[in-house]
Amino acid sequence: MPAKTQTESIQPDARERLLDAALVLFTQRGYAASSVREICAAAGVTKPVLYYYFGSKEGLYLQLMEESYALFESLVPRLTSYAGPVRQRVIHICEGLFDISTQKLDIVRLIYSIYYGTPQGAPAYNFDRYYDRLLEIVAGLVREGIEQGEFRAGDVGDMTWAILSCLNIAIEEQLSHCTPRIGREAMTRILNLFFEGMAENEPHG
Amino acid sequence: MPAKTQTESIQPDARERLLDAALVLFTQRGYAASSVREICAAAGVTKPVLYYYFGSKEGLYLQLMEESYALFESLVPRLTSYAGPVRQRVIHICEGLFDISTQKLDIVRLIYSIYYGTPQGAPAYNFDRYYDRLLEIVAGLVREGIEQGEFRAGDVGDMTWAILSCLNIAIEEQLSHCTPRIGREAMTRILNLFFEGMAENEPHG
């Protein structure tokens, strides 16, 4: 049997294990404090395996971010293909994004820690693309709702931000240091409050 | 003239300058990476001055957090004493909290970086007390609004979270890496959307 080089003999799941190990270490210890040595040890591979797949720690980090965004983007067609009243479609999208966020809470946590945390020398990544894309999707729905007479004529931007504020606070509550005080059901109820209004006397209509 | 000891001869604003320097360094470089030596150099004081006022870096950090919370708490009587319809009082509180958050954006940024960031060995501080207090204040107002017939009968908790979601997203937008896309006026408009509802057909009434 011919001798294999190290990168040829690696297990087929080594790449995934490196991504998983990096996610855990970057979140728990921070990007700067996580060394290539530690990531490889946690993944059970040698350094050349990391270099083979990702080139560097920076490359591994950027790949983790790219794959997370790709996962989000891959959900968009399913989330936006839902039929029915625009209001239900908005709720469907928010629930879908809430679900994927809680399923992938570790990556959401890492994104928050990099976005809001102290600069740690991680290579630049445009996290605002998530929000920009969300704004685009929801604004399109709001515009449709207004055109179809389902929503009142109003500022599309304001309505879009109102919807995203519900999703935002529900997801952030899952990252809180205490037991989450609101979850998926509360988010949907809050969205409905926003559709129906909470004032007793509607000045419109 | 008798010789003064170092702590006796310090400038009267040394304590404030230490707090200011620590805020900048903790935010820009992180709590763990900021040494007592660097904080003192940035404040233009010697180490014994820091130890005199705060005992340690941990003590300085905790004092910074305590003073921030005390500032927030000191605003509560003014923010809640506003007269008028409950809806206007809710808006008044959110605008007041938005204003103080933008005036003290550095401390908000530090709180976010510690809360969401990688653990850096900073002593534990209960940041959720801000939110717990906010929930308490806004829930009290919502209850009053329902009792007075100004708000529809509904879940106090849901309405409270709906209001806080608007404040939350508006403040976080000021921390974003891009130019803030919404500010104080948009926050107020979004709050009004919550009060009035955006659906064309109100199923209630």
Q: What's the short version?
A:
Two copies of one chain form a homodimer. Chain A is built from nine helices and no strands.
Describe how the helices and strands are arranged.
Two copies of one chain form a homodimer.
Chain A (H helix, E strand, L loop, with lengths): L13 H15 L7 H8 L3 H8 L2 H24 L5 H18 L1 H12 L11 H20 L8 H19 L9 H13 L9
**Low-pLDDT segments, ≥5 res of chain A:** none
Number of distinct helices of chain A: 9
* Architecture (CATH level 2) name of the largest domain in chain A: Orthogonal Bundle
Number of domains of chain A: 2
Specify which chain pair forms the largest interface.
Answer: A-B, 60 and 60 residues
Cα-atom radius of gyration of chain A: 21 Å
User: What is the arithmetic mean of pLDDT of chain A?
Assistant: 91
The tally of strands of chain A reads 0
CATH topology of the largest domain in chain A: Tetracycline Repressor, domain 2
Give the strand content of chain A. Answer: under 5%
What oligomeric arrangement do these chains adopt? Answer: homodimer
The first-level CATH class name of the largest domain in chain A: Mainly Alpha
Distance between the termini of chain A: 82 Å
Please, could you describe this protein's structure?
The structure is a homodimer of 205-residue chains. With 205 residues, chain A is an all-alpha fold. Chain A folds into 2 domains: 1-55, Orthogonal Bundle (Arc Repressor Mutant, subunit A), CATH 1.10.10.60; 65-196, Orthogonal Bundle (Tetracycline Repressor, domain 2). Chain A is 67% helix and 0% strand. The first copy, chain A, is built from 9 helices and no strands. In chain A, α5 packs antiparallel against α7 (128-147). The N and C termini of chain A lie far apart (82 Å). The interface between A and B is large, with 60 and 60 residues.
